[in-house]
Design goal:
The complex is a heterodimer of chains A (167) and B (664). By secondary structure, chain A is of the alpha+beta class. Chain A has one domain: CheA-289, Domain 4 (OB fold (Dihydrolipoamide Acetyltransferase, E2P), Beta Barrel), CATH 2.40.50. Chain A has a five-stranded mixed sheet. Chain A starts with a helix and ends with a helix. The relative contact order of chain A is 0.20. Chain B contains 22 helices and 22 strands. The N and C termini of chain B lie far apart (76 Å). Chain B folds into five domains: 134 residues, Four Helix Bundle (Hemerythrin (Met), subunit A), CATH 1.20.120; 110 residues, 2-Layer Sandwich (Alpha-Beta Plaits); 56 residues; 178 residues, Heat Shock Protein 90 (2-Layer Sandwich), CATH 3.30.565; 139 residues, CheA-289, Domain 4 (OB fold (Dihydrolipoamide Acetyltransferase, E2P), Beta Barrel). The chains are: A alpha+beta (167), B alpha+beta (664). At the A-B interface, strand 4, strand 5 and strand 7 of A face strand 21 and strand 22 of B. Chain A: One of its GO terms (biological process) is chemotaxis.
Amino acid sequence: MYEDKQAAAPSQQLTFSLADEEYGVDILAVREIRSWTRVTRIPQTPDYVLGVLNLRGAIVPIMDLRLRFGLQRESYGDDTVVIIVAIGERLFGIVVDAVSDVVDIDPAAIKPVPDMGAVVDTRYLKGLATYAERMVMLLDVEKLMRPEDVETLDAALPAIQEVEVAA
Amino acid sequence: MSAVDLTQFHKTFFEESREGLDAMEAALLALDSGATDHELVHTIFRAAHSIKGGAATFGFADVAAFTHVAESLLEEVRSERRAVDAGLIEVLLCSVDCMRAMLERSSQGQPVADAESEALRVELVQLVSGEVAAPVVAAASMVAPVSGWNIAFTALPHLLQTGNDPLRLFRELQQLGRLEVVRAFITDSAPAQLAELDPSQCYLGWELRLHGAVARAEIDAVFDWLDGDCELAIAPLAEVAVAGPVAQAAGESLPVATAAPRPIRETAAASGEGSSIRVGIDKVDALINMMGELVITQSMLSDIGEKFELSQLGRLRDGLVQLERTTRELQESVMRIRMLPIGSVFNRFPRLVHDLERKLDKRVKLELHGEHTELDKTVLEKIGDPLVHLVRNAIDHGLESPAQRKAAGKSETGTLKLNAYHEGGNIVVQISDDGAGLNHAAIVAKAQQRGLIAAGQELSDAEVAELIFQPGFSTAAQATDLSGRGVGMDVVRRNVRDLGGSVGVRSVSGKGSTFTITLPLTLAIIDGLVTAVGSERYIVPLTSIVESLRLRADAVRRIAGGGEVFHFRDEYLPIMRLHRAFACNDAVTDIEHGIVVVIEEDGRRVGLLVDDLLGQQQAVVKSLEAHYQRVQGISGATILSDGSVALIVDVGGVVRLGQRSKAA
């Protein structure tokens, strides 16, 4: 659904900055933008999942995008912004440095992410776009919320089940 | 003219047919248990008739054809040309199953008829035409002399609104024989003034005479759809003196159909387990009342708040108390909407017991108690399978064969009791039988063989009972050479535990056993103890807390491998440091300064070390999975009064976490 809209008309992207780089997320996936509030930590989760917060009764996980990308953690203050995005019915928040703008991007102008080898983790990017001579990296929100450990677990699951049956 | 798209009605048709089949099944089972109610036969017939009609309308020809044959058979029962016996009920029950399967396949767009349904259809056809040939002659000799019928037919005012048309009825009757209208009259319900006449109401009644050798059943069929919409009396023409016994029989069975509700429909409605709930209007009214109270309290409070003076403190406090009470009542009312009677689950057991009786050659009397006990819809949907399992086990392994029972000096018919009732904040469901009870010797032997217990180990009754819930105890092959129980009892326990409940067994050798399932009233709200660990808050469900205590440092022993245990009521319990399990910073690490909360899950106890107890709170359980994923040791989250999120400890998960770290 989300992909379709992206392909059809010029897509609007909400751009934000993170460690001096510019990223974009499809505006249709954005539910709201709010300032940083304290979250409740969840045990047994990767460090980039900061915890959960109460979004009008819904328990929504919050992820630090810097940590997700393996960058240095910044301290959170009043300027820190949380973007709440939705994939289908599921909501989650991403912590970014600052929100910049809403820009129109022609889908035809989106270039694939070059293969950087193992140096840079590019799997959470959908493509690269240029806007006002700046490069905007378009986020693939769906992949963001699928933690790598879940992927690893999924791959390992059949083996685990076999062990259990055998035991 | 564009054709009406009938597919839009398919869902309704399938739903109604399923309800109809449920009603048929319930009525058949009632007949089987010896009830000879005429209304029961009618119920069965009507259900079959509606399904046939619907199936034909919507183009499910195979279903219609099958149901038609079943209906013909029922028709004979209804017109008392065929006696109801166990064999017939068995065949009809099979037909119900078959129709259910056919409808299921139709709804999935698969081919409907299969070898099984075809075989059954042929059997039914043979029953209708062949075997019954002799009785037909006898019946014919009884029916034939009737030269006609007197029909007194008075429409109730709403007759027309149900889509019935007296004219159509008369036309149908005319096809049966010569119809004579003796008298048509206006009923008492008609308004005196013409101006007050409501054209959508029917104020007419007729006395009709139908001449010809017409079977009573044929007339019944014409009036079948008018049940509850008219007053009807059908009697054979008086001058046919030959038909003495028939007149008597018909006179007895004069079904003066009135608007009496059919109880069977009610139960069928209650068993609806779709994603929608039917809510009684009284529950909605209660909600609206509560809402009104809340609005009043709110306006009173805002009134106080607008020009607050210290002198009004008392009023403010009163208002807050009222607010608290109303909120709680409102919460209970909302919760009650999700509550459905357990009867909808119990309803499937008469059939199960009936089938098992035949299969296992045992005699069982099923007693159901507390069908009206209500529990949460989610719990209700998931409790069915464990209950079926327990009932099956009770009949298969618990109750002895009639011969064995006789030898033991008991009645040949075993009793299986299902009981549901409220106890505290819980629902208790009990399945008890008066069978042989658990076979301790065999269970112990099996457990030793499986290496679950050491040879020569002495076990108490409770410990032996506990063994049957062990996973190792559960394959079909073992169940046959073990005369005790144990088929998938671990699965039952796991299912019940997933619902936040527990299951236990009490057994007296030779007297029977009782399985008790305790379930929370609802999964949506729990009573919890708010604990502090570092700067974080965790909620521990009150139901799993045994005791909270402060330990002296010398009460803690270390055992090999670094695990900590302490002495509690004659046993050593492991200490589980919550701050370590959940990796909390700045928590109390010195046991002397923290508090140990003893929690219990399935008889296993663990001492949970927390910093402090902050108080008791009702917690509305929110799922973490809705937006995130399952987290081990956490069963959900809730929102505290300051709007922040607190996590709810999954006691079972924490106990297992503790065991894993001990094993590691």
